[in-house]
């Protein structure tokens, strides 16, 4: 009935990404998403997993956009640079500011933390008393996880209530070994 | 009129890309969760309705728009103030019915569809159907029952996106306590 578009999406120039929108629009959308997910699960961990899955959808897509636009088509291969890329470029593009802190766990070389005092996604969510551990920043954690996985740094990222919100990044053993073997080159 | 609206409650901003991609994630999830495009449309409309019901409060608080006296004024406010405020675009109001109870919003540069290409096999999906729910829900809160449909969709190869609004009736009995 309808014809295919004459111009495919790849023919269009990549957006510069400078646009912004009313925060309320995002807040309304996100809150509907949280409620939608909540209606389909029974436990808090399941809900967080669903939000993380949605975040991963975003993460995989923003990743290529950013390397094309900001990094001159070059991917990061060093762990620290990759983490800094997440803390600065990814955060600035999505949330308009850098993440507050990036830390390495003292007792575990596989674990890193990104700390954010007041995450955007939690601003409009009031956590019900019986679901105290729920953190909708699981959505952001999903974004970070997808960005890291998409760049060849397999990791598990989870959101926790600690100094505001802390994203705990646990890398696969292989990532750390590879990074060590690259040192000095 | 609209420019000076909401001073002091100046709207905070968020990256348009975050919004677009988040909406995309939602639609992709719904497509996984539901069997048919029609059901996805229905779910998007429902979520839009829930948003509209709440969004109207935000809108009225931030804008200095008073009561609209006729449907033409409503159309103007939706296009020039409402869409501008929440999506940063101003659709064109066009194709009035002779009776003045139906019009179209012609939407170019729909921020919901930046980056989006509909895969084959989803010809019945109204990707931006959330908008129709938002329009329906928010107008219902100001006592107007309307019917909202997508006549054209740029994602489906049409030249533009056209949303049709039809005035059904005034919801007189739904006046909240304390009004009038």
UniProtKB/TrEMBL annotation, chain A:
SUPFAM superfamilies: Ligand-binding domain in the NO signalling and Golgi transport (SSF111126). It is found in: Endoplasmic reticulum; Golgi apparatus, cis-Golgi network. The keyword Iron does not apply. Its main location: endoplasmic reticulum. The keyword Aminoacyl-tRNA synthetase does not apply. It comes from the Eukaryota. One of its GO terms (biological process) is Golgi vesicle transport. Keywords: Endoplasmic reticulum, ER-Golgi transport, Golgi apparatus, Transport. GO terms for cellular component: endoplasmic reticulum; Golgi apparatus; TRAPP complex. Belongs to the TRAPP small subunits family. BET3 subfamily. May play a role in vesicular transport from endoplasmic reticulum to Golgi. Part of the multisubunit TRAPP (transport protein particle) complex. This is Trafficking protein particle complex subunit 5. The lineage of its organism: Eukaryota, Metazoa, Chordata, Cephalochordata, Leptocardii.
Automatic annotation (TrEMBL), chain B:
SUPFAM superfamilies: Ligand-binding domain in the NO signalling and Golgi transport. It is found in: Endoplasmic reticulum; Golgi apparatus, cis-Golgi network. Belongs to the TRAPP small subunits family. BET3 subfamily. This is Trafficking protein particle complex subunit. It comes from the Eukaryota. Homodimer. Keywords: Endoplasmic reticulum, ER-Golgi transport, Golgi apparatus, Lipoprotein, Palmitate, Transport.
């Amino acid at each position: 009935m309808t014809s295919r578009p004459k111009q495919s999406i790849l023919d269009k120039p990549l957006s510069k990404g400078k646009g912004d929108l009313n925060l309320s629009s995002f807040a309304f959308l996100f809150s509907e998403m949280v409620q939608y997910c909540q209606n389909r699960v029974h436990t808090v961990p399941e809900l967080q997993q669903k939000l993380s899955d949605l975040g991963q959808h975003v993460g995989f897509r923003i990743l290529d956009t950013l390397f094309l636009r900001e990094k001159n088509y070059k991917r990061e291969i060093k762990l620290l640079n990759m983490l800094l890329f997440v803390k600065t470029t990814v955060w600035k593009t999505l949330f308009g500011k850098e993440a507050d802190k990036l830390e390495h766990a003292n007792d575990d070389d596989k674990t890193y933390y990104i700390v954010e005092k007041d995450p955007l996604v939690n601003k409009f969510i009031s956590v019900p008393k019986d679901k105290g551990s729920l953190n909708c920043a699981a959505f952001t954690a999903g974004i970070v996880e997808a960005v890291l996985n998409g760049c060849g740094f397999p990791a598990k990222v989870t959101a926790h209530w600690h100094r505001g919100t802390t994203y705990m990044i646990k890398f696969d053993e292989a990532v750390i070994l590879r990074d060590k073997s690259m040192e000095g080159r | 009129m609209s420019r000076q609206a909401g001073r002091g409650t100046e709207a905070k901003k968020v990256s348009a890309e975050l919004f677009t991609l988040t909406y995309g994630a939602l639609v992709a999830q719904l497509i996984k969760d539901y069997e048919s495009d029609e059901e996805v449309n229905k779910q998007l409309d429902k979520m839009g309705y829930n948003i509209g019901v709440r969004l109207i409060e935000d809108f009225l608080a931030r804008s200095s728009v008073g009561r609209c006296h006729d449907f033409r004024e409503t159309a103007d406010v939706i296009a020039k103030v409402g869409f501008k405020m929440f999506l940063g675009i101003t659709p064109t109001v066009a194709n009035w019915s002779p009776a003045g109870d139906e019009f179209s919003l012609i939407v170019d540069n729909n921020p919901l569809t930046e980056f989006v290409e509909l895969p084959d096999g989803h010809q019945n999906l109204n990707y931006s159907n959330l908008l129709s729910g938002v329009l329906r829900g928010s107008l219902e809160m100001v006592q107007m029952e309307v019917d909202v449909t997508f006549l054209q969709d740029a994602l489906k190869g049409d030249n533009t996106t056209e949303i049709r609004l039809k005035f059904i009736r005034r919801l007189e009995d739904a006046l909240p306590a304390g009004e009038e």
